[in-house]
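Example with several molecule types.
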Amino acid sequence: MLKLALGPIPYFWPRNEVLRFYEEMAQAPVEIIYLGETVCAKRRQLALEDWLMLGEGLAAAGKQVVLSTLTLIEAESELGALRRLCADAPFMVEANDMAAIQLLQGRDFVAGTGINVYNHLALSRLARLGLRRWVLPVELDHAALADLQRLRPAGIETEVLAWGRLPLAHAARCFTARAHGLPKDDCRFRCRDYPDGLLLKTREGQPFLNLNGIQTQSALSQCLIGELPALEALDVEVLRLIPQAQGMSEVIGLFDRVRRGDLDAAEARRRLAQLAPIGLCNGFYRGGPGMAMTVGALT
Amino acid sequence: MELVCPAGNLPSLKAAVDAGADAVYLGFRDDTNARHFAGLNFSHEQLREGVGYAHARGRQVLLAINTFARPDGWARWQQAVDRAVALGVDALIIADMGVLEYAAQRYPEQRLHLSVQASATSVEALRFYHEQFGIRRAVLPRVLSLRQIEALVEKSPVEIEVFGFGSLCVMVEGRCYLSSYVTGESPNTCGACSPARFVDWQEQADGLHTRLNGILIDRFLPEEQAGYPTLCKGRFDVCGRVGYAIESPTSLNTLDLLPRLLGAGVAAVKLEGRQRSPAYVARVSRVWREAIDACRRDPAGYRPRPEWMAALDEVAEGARTTPGAYHRSWQ
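Resulting structure tokens for the full complex:
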């Protein structure tokens, strides 16, 4: 059966909200939980020690805990924090930047969505360095995944982002601060006001992107609930679900019931559409524009 | 400090060399490089002629194979490496770990540069590519401040090349999937951002609409100058306010930072614009050649000349320039 993994929280939630969220998630039917700040180093409501403490609790609840690293490393202080995380982690680490892979080589690690593995040679090279699991890059489709699964080295798990707003880009600039006329160095943590990010619409009112500090996400939530049979047929082991501020337990419950065969995928998709902040897309996996949504069997 | 200039075709290559480029960078006429535009780039024969022209004048040719190979297209990337080495290019500029692996193993003597598309922004990332593949130079993404670049050059195991001028990528290169989110094609997979075949210009009652695969990127009044709908440089609505939420149409220009880049030990400055005309290449290359020479002669007394800045502003995207992430206030 497909395993469910809860991705790291992409947003800046208050400390108590984070703790409450993981209390709830400890009871949710996910096998793997990724913890840590992956977007902005200025968000420090939880220190590494706090994440480790959270991780111990979740591990005691039977979850496999993975610590995720920052995606864009710029300052020396960020590199120092990364070195500390990679050196001290009692859990497996998910690398979201090549700097983390440099620090983790020789140990088991996960290559996250920020690592560009587009072919079998890259996959094999990382496998020789300690890769245990990799996440399919967001813009790769079913056909590329099929090739990569056929050619992947033994002992590697494959994870696919099955739910949530897509991490599409990272920048030096903070777009949430910019929307409020503030520079990043004086951001006043405005991203704390947007637990699901700040919606960017076109000039004709179409929801388009979602600003989350230095990260740009899709406005639509990627939903591969209809693709579970295709993913299983390709021996994908793990589905990643990205946290959102509301309704995450319901989202997980729907994926859980569909993977167990207890609920029809079409019915689940109808309910997931209600739980998405804006709407659904699955275009990347279908081999088209990521924002597209196609229903029906994969050809 | 080397001056590395863009060459989208043979006339541009010659223009760059004649204007004083120490090296030109270019790509084959397919999706193995990140400027895969119609009518651009080099056939095998043109590359042979270009290498001959540059080498006869003591200049270098750097060949970009800097997109990411999917398994089904792998042979094309492998052949690009083979052909480039056979033609005697001075370095390959590569982003993909798989392509790096092939080039490093098959041609251990070949000089390899790490493309900006590999997205290496820290000394640990540079060490990774240096130790795993023996890269000798890395091009830095346009996300670091000047102070961060200075600190990085000091510790880097390889030469550092930075962007000096040209169209500005706001997002960290190699990890931006905005273009494929809208069109299905991205710099990583197809070698183009916001590809022209998805662009639509529509005259409407309320102005000129520019769309990318149906998404309204911007709308221009008659008195406004309409720009190409690069999707991160459009005007959008955030919190009910319409504006350039990500970045305005503008070009990067670091001409006034040259003494610090030189002092930091930056090995090379790269000018963007393989998709631009030979006239653009000649103009920006000449300005930068004069500037680098002036800065080398007298770093303390160096000031960008007004005529240099004017010449660059004229060809800049949106006719405006910015120091970008090099200045923290931009971030």
